[in-house]
Amino acid sequence: MEHTTSELSELGTRVHLGPIDITVAVIYLIGIVAIGLLAAWRHKARQGAADEYFLAGKSLGWASIGLALFATNISTLHLVSFAQNGFDTGLLNGNFEWMAGFTLVMLGLFFAPFYIRSGISTLPDFLERRYNRTCRDCLAFVSVLTAVVIHIAFALLTGGIILEELLEIPMIYSLIVLCVLTGIYTIVGGLLAVVVTESIQTIVLLAGAALITWFAFWQLGGPADSPGGWNGWENLLSILQQEGEEQKLSMLRPHGDKDGMPWYAVLLGYPVLGIWYWCADQTIVQRVLGAKDEQHARQGPIFAGVLKILPVFLFVLPGLLAYALYVDGRLDLSMITVDEEVQSKGVYASMITELLPPGLRGILVAALMAALMSTVSGAMNSISTLVSYDLIKRFNPSVSDKSLVRSGRIAAGVALVLAVALVPALNMFESIYNGMASIISHVAPPITAVLVLGVFWRGSSSRAAATTLIGGSILGIGIFTINTFVPDGILNQLPGGFMMMAFTLCMLCVIGQILLSLMMPDVQRATTDGMPTGSDLAWETPLAALKIPGKTRLGDPRLLSAGLIVVMAILYWIFR
Length: 576
Fold this sequence. Notes:
Blueprint: H1 5-9, H2 19-42, H3 50-55, H4 62-73, H5 76-89, H6 95-117, H7 123-130, H8 133-167, H9 171-220, H10 232-242, H11 263-280, H12 282-289, H13 294-307, H14 310-327, E1 337-338, E2 341-342, H15 347-355, H16 360-395, H17 401-422, H18 432-456, H19 462-485, H20 497-519, H21 557-574
Antiparallel strand pairs: 1-2
């Protein structure tokens, strides 16, 4: 049964936030906008230069890149939906976070060196150098569209849901305020302002998430009649055993699992989504393109991969703890219960109001706003870059940097307005995160196929790539439309759900592109700017990238990647 956020908020009348909480949230908002504007002001003399505005003058170090990658990725969508998923299915959806670590290693080791060496400003620019202009146009269109829908609109939706619960005001009002404040420093300051504020927001976000996880564990740690203690994990295990829900602690589920995401779907399907998201999405990769050198561009994603270990414990686990607290009668969810069924979209808001004392709730609201603002600002900067370089400069190569920056600012503002208008239409999914992932699973396959074959196989041809991008996108849109309007149809009955759908579509695209490349091979193009083009933008062998040394032994990206992979393997073994 679907219920709007306004219907849910009418179920309870308790006061959610007090004056102290609101004061903390307001101070945070003022502070983060001031910091963003200060960063812009300090580089005001160079703001007219396009590279300075869109790519931070290529001055970003590995720590800034890693923090910015993490902050741009983590939004209110993760906080709200992962808590919902933790309540409903346990740690299962944490696979989206831990599998990202492996994909970020691919970005750091295999893709980032090419991006830096080719001197590109956008990912569509890379596809034009590797293939042709048709590929550039296709990726530019998809990148702008997904930035508006995936990065901004979905983030605004989940942020609006929880802020409406906590502030007890219509969603649209809080979203307008946050969008205006985010737009001010993003549009004025460009990528540097975005990265500076994202680094701070990452710390606030993690601190707030750790806070609610701690309080949930503490509440579960004592006896039922006297909550509070150090036995939270033992009590969690006991409650799950009593309810017959031990599988909620498992990350890798068997075939036929009731939650519809068996281990093979994760293993085969996630790389299709992850390579598109982390290695081909302008909103994400733009932070890497702003690196001061190739070493930092390689190290930054690996640092982000380390940070991606945390969300399972800070975002997903709290939802599972909420389930245990609810079953044990320690968490009152009556305010989001309709017809004896908990509407799990509101679990995170309920945990904030039920578990945290006044004052600390304001810190969580600040963390939520940090997640929302960092994602929106990153996507806006990406959109402004794409429109400026892949649209304006393409048709007017002689355009001045000042005009280019102005066009980018206008594009970012228009995109923000469109995203706000899309928010009501996206509230139809039972699980918001799964709804977003489902959209990605039908968009990502052709892009992933074209990018992977383009980087790892020199025989991949431009005409084959263009045909795969266009044909694969049309196929994906058609299947998504059928799945949406015929929910009980055969396409929705695949084992593994949308993850296996993504894998199947990607394999079709890969096979098609290989066959077309063999039938329509490329002729090597001449370069006009001294930069590599065509098959020169592909590794000689798939493992050639591993021969690139690091500047220092301990800072060698290959060593750092190996360490991260070992840690991830151990974690998967523990939570198998």
